[in-house]
Amino acid sequence: MNYNWNWHIFLEPNPMGTGTYLDMLLAGLVVTIKVSVLAWIIALVSGTVIGVLRTLPSRTASWIGFCWVEFFRNMPLLVQLFLWFFVLPELLPKSAGLWMKQLPNAPFWTAAVGVGLFMSARVAVQLQAGIGSLPRGQKQASTALGLTTVQTYRYVLLPMAFRIILPPLTSEFLNTIKNSAVAITIGLIELTGQARSMQEFSFQVFEAFTAATVLYLLLNFVVVTAMRLLERYVAIPGYITGK
Amino acid sequence: MTMLGNLDFDVIRRSLPYLFFEGMRFTLTLTALAAFGGLVFGTLIALMRLSSYKVLGRIAGFYVDFIRSLPLVLVIFWFYFLVPYIGQWLTGASRPISVGAFASSLITFVAFEAAYFSEIMRAGIQSISRGQPAAASALGLTYAQSMRYVVLPQAFRNMLPVLLTQTIVLFQDTSLVYVLSIPDFLGAASKVAQRDGRLVEMYLFAALVYFVISCVASFGVRRLQARIAIVR
Lengths: 243, 232
Prior knowledge:
The complex is a heterodimer. By secondary structure, chain A is an all-alpha fold. Chain A has helices at 21-55, 59-73, 77-91, 94-102, 106-132, 136-144, 149-164, 166-179, 191-202, 205-234. In chain A, helix 1 (21-55) crosses helix 8. The longest helix of chain A is centred in the first third of the chain and has 35 residues, at 21-55. By secondary structure, chain B is mainly alpha-helical. Chain B has a domain at 25-184: MetI-like (MetI-like fold, Orthogonal Bundle). Chain B has eight helices and no strands. Chain B has helices spanning 10-50, 54-68, 72-91, 101-126, 131-138, 143-173, 185-196, 199-229. The A-B interface holds A 1-3, 70-71, 73-80, 82-83, 86-87, 90-94, 174, 177-182, 184-185, 192, 195-196, 199, 205-206, 209, 212-213, 216-217, 220 and B 1-4, 66, 69-74, 77-78, 81-82, 85, 88-89, 95, 172-173, 175-176, 178-179, 186, 199-200, 203-204, 206-207, 210-211, 214-215, 218.
């Protein structure tokens, strides 16, 4: 291979005047982490609401949940980001559309909301399965004890279901981090984006992508380790994974 | 009211042949070939992972974990720049060889999807009871024969709904070749959108087409699942 390797490139100053090339990649990593965490919070909150709706006896509620999940699951994430970024501001009333377009950091907020809603459909499906896996006696016992529906979910079903679905939720969080890279298409300069601009400025393709790869692997490792600890901490006694 | 009045949906009608005969053909061909290649290599990786040679299992496991922790966009960039060098190395040419957009994306998606399909096939193979390969070897079948005639057909059949669901995900994921400015369906729509300044119409239409195809396909998978679930 006649490729000129230059691993010292990371310590050379970048053309943006923001320190070295390494600083550039680390800035991208920070954006990736910020957008993923925000997206994950959005996914967890809206996914929980939708997941609960899907398990309620009300026809309307489960229909709304069904539509939500099908809407966000059956379009590529890239297309969804385009809808939020390019299409929505044009369809809103003029003032609202203008506000969206002039928002500082618009790609960041669009990516967080877009990836968050995309992932919410998956969280909802997982949570529905988690609630469905609980013995029906749990719900009946709560009713017998005089708990309202809200109390039943708040104190009985959700705490159990979330602890059961923690492992799949971990992989969904990892997917959120990976999916944040799609936001490069609406101009968000996250980790992959920074690696790409480093490649364009310095022509050191493989160093740039190797560094981004290593940073993604590290991020993955940190998340997996943290979640394993959390899983052990909240394991339900009496279940296979419990103490 | 909004700007709906200013929309020109005729741009969609005018660009239909380009969108479908160029764009969608690229997307569907890429999806089908990548699914096939991903399944073949995925099955090989799964067999490596389950083989009694520990080294093979390690290598396969490492590959799967590695690919699955990277964003697809990054993997697309990786292969886009790497494939010409691999080609040079394989052919012994004096400079990196240029590979077409389609070949480059196909190699990327096969390599990427193989990791995901291998996990599905591994689950499928592990769902076959131990007695089956044992009976096969008692009948005198070799390892290859027992895999070919006994284990893999059943594993494939059991996992068919999951494999098809993964293929729908793959169909949606192929839209990411957009980052290489390749005219797949979304790329074609985007090209027309930018040429005619009709982003709203084209992206809405692209979203609708992806939505309808994915919905119909997943509905089909669900029916299939219901049909083959009764057999047991």
